[in-house]
Write a structure and sequence with these properties.
Elements lengths: L6 E2 H10 L6 H10 L6 E3 L2 E4 L1 H11 L8
Antiparallel strand pairs: 1-3, 2-3
Amino acid sequence: MDNRKYLTRPQAADFLAERGYPCTKGTLQKIASTGGGPRYRLFGNRALYTPDDLLEWAEDRCSEPKLSA
C-alpha cells in the first residue's frame, strides 16, 4: 500500500516557501495549465502534490552555485 502524503495547492505553495523556494498557489495553478510545473494528481477537481515531486521540481529549477566576481 502506498502511504504518500498529498498536499493541496495552497499547502504545496507553503511547503515550498518554508524550504526557501518562493512560490504561490497562483503560480502553481498557472504552470499547471501552461506546463513546466511539478507533477500533480487530480482528486476530483483538486490538484494534489507529493513533497518529493515538489522538491524535485524546485531543485531542477535552481541554477548551479556560482562565485561572485
